[in-house]
Design goal:
By secondary structure, the protein is mostly helical. Helix content is about 65%, strand content about 0%.
């Protein structure tokens, strides 16, 4: 690529979107803390001045990245809000991880971010916590809609299964690992439905 073309791209529109796209790729492949702001600027490509005009700190960039993932449907939780599939299938969609060819296999981006920003008062950790609380609220609403007994407790069990499966899938590099947790989730749902025997 010529110097002129590169300079034109750096000065062109869409800098914020390019920064977020570069950050998403780098965070997924090498982790958040291992990714420097200069590396994001180079990958985008934008000048460091442009990068810091959009995101004053690394934390600002990480939170924006997580918000972008949440709004774009790029997380497991996105299936919970879909209205085109039945409530039960929305819950079970929590256990369908990205395709095996989407290497590397990543866990939940909110758990990953919270682990890399362990201070519970940090903006990143706080946002990750909000998303995990929203996840259990959405599942609670769905199991309530299904008429399940003890919906709050059941929802906590289901999201714990989903988060655990996503984490193990990442560690083991197995995108199909969610099948194990899905089988357990189906048992939990069946036992919680009215008329079932415990």
């Amino acid at each position: 690529m010529s110097t002129v073309t590169t300079a034109a791209r750096r000065q062109g529109r869409g800098g914020r979107e390019r920064i977020l796209a570069a950050a998403a790729q780098l965070f997924a492949t090498q982790g958040i803390n291992a990714t420097g702001m200069e590396q994001v600027a180079e990958q985008a490509p934008v000048s460091k001045r442009t990068l810091y005009a959009h995101f004053r700190t690394k934390s600002d960039l990480v939170v924006a990245h997580l918000r972008d993932l949440a709004s774009s449907g790029g997380t497991l939780e996105s299936a919970l809000a879909r209205e085109d599939i039945p409530a039960r299938e929305r819950i079970l969609a929590l256990f369908v991880l990205p395709a095996a060819d989407a290497a590397p296999v990543r866990g939940c981006p909110f758990i990953d971010a919270a682990a890399e920003f362990p201070d519970p008062q940090s903006a990143v950790h706080s946002y990750a916590r909000e998303q995990k609380l929203l996840m259990v609220q959405l599942v609670t609403a769905l199991v309530t809609e299904l008429g399940c007994r003890e919906p709050a407790a059941l929802a906590e069990q289901l999201v714990t299964l989903a988060d655990g499966a996503a984490s193990r899938a990442m560690v083991l590099g197995d995108a199909d690992y969610g099948r194990h947790a899905r089988a357990a989730a189906e048992v939990l749902l069946d036992h919680a439905l009215p008329g079932s025997t415990r």
